Amino acid sequence: MTDEQQARRVDHYENFPVASWLCPPALRPPIAAIYWFARTADDLADEGDAPPEARLADLDAFGAELDRCASGQSATRWPEVFGPLQTSIRRFRLPVPLLHDLLSAFRQDVLKTSDGAGYADRAELLDYCRRSANPIGRLLLHLHDIEDGRSLRRSDAICSSLQLVNFWQDLSRDLPRGRRYLPDADCAQHGIEPLHPELADASARAALLRAECAWARKLMLEGAPLVHALPGRAGWELRLVVQGGLRILDKIEAQGFDTITRRPAIAALDAPALLWRAVRM
């Protein structure tokens, strides 16, 4: 795989650090293997011009390769993904069901997008987050030998929040592609047609996104104490993850809760504020 492809895959998960310099060196290979797995599956679901049927077939094949990998068999496809992943599964006993949860979420993306379907309410959207984002956090905790219920719940809150932050940040990208993450019930509560929120009155859209950002912020703050459970550099990395998500929410608010016309993003100038906030945690 080329350096350009690697850079593109890492960039896709900009709110999740990928084997960064803060990560303990011994854990960089399994973390990289997990992200390459997730990134490749996400590309199968989302990149290119393949019809939904072909995407679903590829995801099914990818899941079959995961089962082969977990059983100790050599990969027949995507060896650059499943070779390192097999080593990590064997060495660190990675919970394979969490990897299958990710594939379930990617399949759902294909089906929802092809049907133009959205999410009925927050509970349905959180169930998607449970499979699309929360497994990443739980896998990382597993690598740090943290398995207690309170830490897992806090990890889920952070990961679900990050997923929601990405949704609210990316409305200008997702809506034209037929990806609808604003819950139908929330849209209706603000007098907005769920199929076309971009056509709603600007003040109604702002009120809706204000509520969605408050929800994401609440989840992030519920999970934030997890930073004190992680040792050393991992704890500092998580501090920056949490503060990165909160910074995006701040930027959404600063532009009047309008991400349908403009996408906010973390920039180099944000680094001092993120570091200061991380220290204050």
Automatic annotation (TrEMBL):
EC number from the UniProt entry: 2.5.1.21
Keyword Transferase carried by entry: yes
Tagged with keyword Transferase: yes
Gene3D superfamilies membership: Farnesyl Diphosphate Synthase
Single annotated GO MF: geranylgeranyl diphosphate synthase activity
Source taxonomy: Bacteria, Pseudomonadati, Pseudomonadota, Betaproteobacteria, Burkholderiales
Source organism (scientific name): Ramlibacter algicola
Pfam families: SQS_PSY
Signal peptide: none
NCBIfam families: HpnC
Keywords linked to the UniProt accession: Transferase
UniProt-recorded name of the protein: Squalene synthase HpnC
